[in-house]
Amino acid sequence: MVLTDVAPILVCPVCRMPLNFEQATLRCERGHAFDVAKEGYVNLLRKKLPGDTKEMVVARRAFFDQGYYEPVSDLLNRLLRVHLPDTIEGPLRILDAGCGEGYYLGRLQQSLSNDYGYMQGVGIDISKDAIRLAARRYPGSSFLVANLKEALPLVEQALTGMVNVFAPRNVAEYARVLQPGAPLLIIIPGSHHLEELRHSLHLLNIEENKQQHVIEQFAGTFDLLALHTLTYKLELEQGEIEQLVVMTPNYWHQSTESQARLAELADFTTTVDFVCLVFQRKLSVSE
Ligand SMILES: [Zn+2]
């Protein structure tokens, strides 16, 4: 089981002591125990927290499986390879923080394993439904249910690199668990992302100045190395538009009116617009 490979970097979410494998359980020396699910993931949350629902992650998988976001995934894989250090000490270990149903981590694991011979992929998400789906399809990576907004269940400087796609950001924790000099790739929506669809269906707006906001958030502990944008058009059928709406936070905000408008949409062309920020964990941080 790949989880045994990453056990040395895991800490107990309750008391921060190391976690060790005992049969199908991760246990700290104070006796906090977390069972490995039959799909191979571990739930480190003590209580269920709101995350993406099963309906949302199933829609996302169906949408991703049509390859519409493959160019984003390819960009992520290429940029991570470019920005990883030439000499990697210890195992190549990459975290996808907010991995959802595992699409980006699964493709990254395959791509970097080809180049480096081996990669330890770790995916964290707050949604157990998402993690269960991820663990089933991508047995080569390790998946944990945990809350990105709290202390991560990982030791300091555990990671060679990290990706974060349309997911929550925790600057202090990302700085703590990354090795000095390690790359952190963050993908956020650009201002034109799904603009035609957002106008037509009155979907959620994208936060103004999001890019600048994220850059400022990370400025204390990370250097911004590069900024890439990726924009293209998608031609979607009605069912795919529905997947695209359901797989995002718009799911929580669907009115009867917008559902009716969605039902009337036939083929539709919309823009996808991604911004990839390449950060590097500073070599030293004055605290
Ligand atoms: Zn403990």
Can you give a write-up of this model?
It is a single chain. This protein has 287 residues and is an alpha/beta fold. It has ten helices and eleven strands. The strands form two sheets. An eight-stranded mixed beta sheet has the order 4-7-6-5-8-9-11-10, with helices on both faces. Helix 2 crosses helix 9. The longest helix is centred in the N-terminal third of the chain and has 14 residues, at 70-83. 40% of the residues are buried. The mean pLDDT is 93. Bound molecules: zinc ion. Zinc ion (ZN) is lined by residues 12, 14-15, 17, 28, 30, 32.
Fraction of residues in H or I helices: 25-40%
Count the strands? 11
| Rg over alpha carbons | 19 Å
Low-pLDDT parts are none
Strand arrangement, major sheet = 4-7-6-5-8-9-11-10
Oligomer: single chain
The biggest beta sheet is recorded as:
8 strands, mixed
| Span between termini | 38 Å
Domain 23S rRNA (guanine(745)-N(1))-methyltransferase N-terminal: 11-45
Domain Methyltransferase: 94-181
Protein name: 23S rRNA (Guanine(745)-N(1))-methyltransferase
InterPro entries: Methyltransf_25 (IPR041698), RlmA_N (IPR048647), rRNA_m1G-MeTrfase_A_prd (IPR016718), SAM-dependent_MTases_sf (IPR029063)
